[in-house]
Write a structure and sequence with these properties.
The chain is α+β, with helices and mostly antiparallel strands. Helices cover 30% and strands 13% of the residues. The longest helix is centred in the middle third of the chain and has 17 residues. The two termini are 28 Å apart. 40% of the residues are buried.
């Protein structure tokens, strides 16, 4: 758990506070429990991340990301006091379940989604197509596919749980293809001193890696802009060494019908003989993703996580099973479309 103390109560991370500032705001109490009086960040107006805290006049204040803490302390004392009073008047604020989780995201309906590109049913885990044509549905602005009609009711009974399961798989699948080590919104690094510090978010079945919760808010204000920027980064990163000289759909030579058409899906660049091939990929994305993955694998690039450094980030918190332990990641628990 990452925390620091403005008033000298706790100091248990690399963020330092000057002795003068610590003395101004109180004495050291090493065993003070980090239990925030607030559920929403006073600066970023996002759910607190559960890791960034400050002590102010004996109360623990939580923030959505590092940086908001110093901005909070830049407020005048009256404004800080008013925030503490208002936060403490909210019932069970420190037990709020919306700290970056599905409770908040479920209320949003997103205008954009990529096709569901995983190969297995969202509920049963069975291979799609093993029980006939997959059933394609949309929930919360996102496409999802099921192996059979019997899985639909189960999904609808626990959307949050199944979205979490889906997002874990999407993050694991797309990390190795992610094209940049900078935030798509701010341009800030996602790696510091060799440590992955990104916040993973799944939006419309697409992995987006951001530097902080404040960038999540900016992303959501204009997602099409940032998805387009991310697509361009994918195309630039993968085009030069693209592993196929033929259309991934029709098999004909690229360029035989003019300039190859392109699309990005699930973090992969796809190149076609013509734009007419794109709907075929949207109809059966797993089929063509398997083909492009096999081509990259044969070339020795974008290997599976256990065979390569691509995407092997040991940086996910306990809410993202199978990914190691950095707590700043919000992949599946902020699915947002």
């Amino acid at each position: 758990m990452k925390a620091f103390c403005i008033c000298g109560v706790i100091a248990c991370c690399s963020v330092s506070v000057s002795p003068a500032l610590a003395q101004d705001h109180g004495e050291h109490h090493a065993e003070t429990e980090l239990k925030a009086v607030n559920a929403m960040c006073p600066v970023g107006n996002e759910p607190i991340d559960g890791e960034t805290f400050a002590q102010y006049k004996g109360k623990t204040v939580g923030f959505c990301c590092s940086g908001c803490d110093s901005k909070f302390m830049a407020w005048d004392e009256t404004r800080r006091d008013q925030f503490i009073t208002a936060a403490m008047s909210q019932p069970a604020a420190d037990d709020h379940e919306g700290h970056g989780g599905h409770g908040e995201a479920q209320a949003e309906v997103d205008p954009w989604t990529e096709p569901y590109a995983l190969t297995t049913c969202a509920v049963s885990g069975e291979k799609l197509g093993s029980m006939g044509d997959p059933i394609v549905k949309q929930y919360d602005g996102r496409e999802v596919r099921f192996c059979c009609s019997g899985c639909i009711d189960k999904f609808e009974a626990d959307r949050a749980g199944y979205w979490q399961k889906i997002d874990e798989q999407i993050i694991e699948d797309q990390l190795r293809y992610y094209p940049t080590e900078t935030c798509v919104v701010s341009g800030e690094p996602l790696v510091a001193d060799g440590e992955d510090i990104a916040k993973n978010m799944v939006y419309g079945n697409r992995l987006v890696r951001l530097c902080c919760n404040m960038c999540k808010r900016e992303f959501k204000a204009d997602p099409a802009k940032f998805i387009e920027k991310l697509d361009k980064a994918v195309a630039k990163a993968q085009r030069a060494d693209y592993p196929l000289e033929t259309c991934v759909v029709r098999g004909g030579p690229l360029g035989s019908m003019g300039e190859p058409a392109e699309m990005v899906i699930a973090g992969r660049l796809m190149r076609f003989c013509c734009a007419g091939c794109e709907p075929k990929v949207n109809a059966d994305p797993a089929k063509y993703i398997a083909l492009i993955d096999a081509a990259w694998l044969a070339q020795g690039s974008y290997m599976p996580e256990d065979d390569s450094d691509h995407g092997a980030h040991d940086d996910h918190d306990a809410d993202e099973p199978g990914h190691g332990g950095h707590g700043d990641h919000d992949g599946h628990d902020d699915h947002d479309g």
